[in-house]
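Final report, Chapter 2: Outcomes

The project's central promise was a pipeline that accepts a single protein chain and returns its three-dimensional structure in a standardized token representation, suitable for archiving and comparison. That pipeline is now operational. To close this chapter, we reproduce one record exactly as it appears in the project archive, with the input sequence first and the structure output second.
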Amino acid sequence: MMDDDYNDDHMMDDTPNYLRGIPKAYLAHFYINGDEYSTPKPLLVNSSRCKNFDIFMDDASKILKPRCGAVRNIYTPLGKHKVTRFQDLKPDGYYVAAGAERYKKLAKKK
């Protein structure tokens, strides 16, 4: 005879056992710091593929190909917050990829 708690827990979650505990991958969109003509490029954020945030920034450098050479900092679009870990990135979020330089505020177009 099966335990009622066991049935209740497994009936609520339709995720197969082999997929439980696997981090979900999602897209985030990145602008290049200081480039007023850049359009956001989508990047796949998958913390299981990149073991730490520095490896993710190396991958972002290869895909985004910023003029500064390598992505070393990631900021929120208004430059108020520096992103330092995967948990700070949100699915379908927009961010600014920068080199070693600080966030560059773009001039408003007239």
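Archive annotation: The chain has one domain: 22-98.
This record, like all others produced under the grant, will remain available to the consortium after the project formally closes.
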